[in-house]
């Protein structure tokens, strides 16, 4: 009888272990898509990911880091994902992709009050410093356009720092998405009406979840299936509208 009980316990334990999946999600502040208040993760992508994980029966931990560190963690550690992540040709083979959650344009902006900045083409922008975030796809696009770090490209570790430099006049221009810039302008007590787009980067960035390629295959299947259910049901569109509708 004891031998039978031990056998049954052994079988049930490993059945449970096989079904128990967990993932660590790493990110940086990119509001209104991903951010934190009082240590609580919030935003469009957070709500999507939390709903996905809950529906898939996957235990989820969300942690915030500087972007380059978050990216490296997800690229090198199994069962770690990074979100949200622009899917670009350079990154294609670094991750298993789930999404896209949303699309976002990235523009170069100036303050309307800077009437000294007369812009007719990209060369006019290159005569000044543009703020960008280290490791973002938009930073790489700016470099492709001929911007040079520490010459006319000023990089920071976060969008919050990037907008702070822009508002204080430490950089003449900023590269950012409309929703993110609008969020941080409000934090600074400024209005969206105070800025204007002077150049649009050619790519519209598709924002995904990037899962480490060596992760448990069952984790990928469950998260991918859960994402598709949310997308097909219209739930993701509802979450997007709730957070950024009307911008």
Poorly predicted regions are 1-18
Question: What is the CATH third-level topology name of the largest domain?
Answer: D-Maltodextrin-Binding Protein, domain 2
The tally of domains stands at: 2
Number of helices: 9
Q: Indicate the structural class.
A: alpha/beta
Which outline best applies? globular
Provide the CATH top-level class of the largest domain.
Answer: Alpha Beta
Mean pLDDT: 90
Can you tell me the CATH superfamily of the largest domain? Periplasmic binding protein-like II
> Can you list the strand order of the major beta sheet?
4-1-5-10-6-9-7-8
Return Rg in Å. Answer: 21 Å
Largest sheet: 8 strands, mixed
% residues in beta strands: 25-35%
For the record, the CATH architecture of the largest domain stands as: 3-Layer(aba) Sandwich
Helix content: 40-55%
Distance between the termini: 68 Å
- For the secondary structure, the number of strands is 10
Order of helix and strand elements from N to C terminus:
HEEEHEHEEHEHEHEHEHH
Question: What this model shows, in words?
Answer:
This protein is 41% helix and 30% strand. The protein is globular and about 60 Å long. It has helices at residues 2-19, 44-56, 67-76, 122-126, 137-144, 159-168, 178-187, 217-233, 235-244; strands at residues 21-27, 35-37, 40-42, 58-64, 80-86, 95-111, 130-133, 153-156, 173-176, 195-212. By secondary structure, the chain is of the alpha/beta class. It has 9 helices and 10 strands. It has 2 domains: 22-103 and 205-244, D-Maltodextrin-Binding Protein, domain 2, CATH 3.40.190.10; 104-204, D-Maltodextrin-Binding Protein, domain 2, CATH 3.40.190.10. It has an 8-stranded mixed beta sheet, with helices on both faces. The longest helix has 18 residues, at 2-19. Helix 2 crosses helix 8 and helix 6 packs across helix 7. It starts with a helix and ends with a helix.
């Amino acid at each position: 009888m004891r031998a039978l009980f031990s056998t049954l316990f052994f079988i049930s334990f490993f059945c449970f272990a096989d079904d128990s999946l967990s993932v660590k999600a790493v990110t940086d502040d990119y509001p209104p898509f991903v951010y934190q208040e009082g240590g609580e993760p919030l935003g469009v992508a957070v709500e999507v990911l939390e709903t996905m994980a809950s529906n898939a029966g996957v235990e989820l931990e969300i942690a915030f880091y500087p972007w380059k560190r978050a990216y490296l963690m997800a690229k090198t550690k199994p069962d770690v994902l990074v979100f949200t992540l622009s899917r670009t040709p350079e990154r294609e083979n670094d991750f298993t992709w789930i999404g896209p959650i949303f699309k976002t344009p990235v523009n170069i902006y100036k303050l309307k009050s800077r009437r000294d900045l007369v812009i007719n083409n990209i060369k006019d922008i290159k005569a000044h410093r543009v703020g960008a975030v280290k490791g973002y796809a938009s930073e790489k696009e700016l470099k492709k356009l001929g911007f040079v770090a520490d010459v006319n490209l000023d990089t920071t570790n976060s969008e919050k720092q990037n907008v702070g430099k822009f508002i204080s006049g430490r950089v003449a221009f900023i590269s950012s998405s409309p929703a993110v810039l609008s969020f941080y302008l409000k934090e600074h007590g400024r209005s969206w009406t105070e800025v204007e787009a002077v150049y649009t980067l050619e790519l519209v960035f598709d924002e995904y979840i990037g899962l480490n390629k060596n992760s448990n295959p069952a984790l990928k299947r469950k998260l991918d299936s859960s994402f598709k259910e949310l997308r097909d049901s219209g739930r993701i569109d509802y979450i997007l509208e709730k957070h950024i509708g009307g911008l």
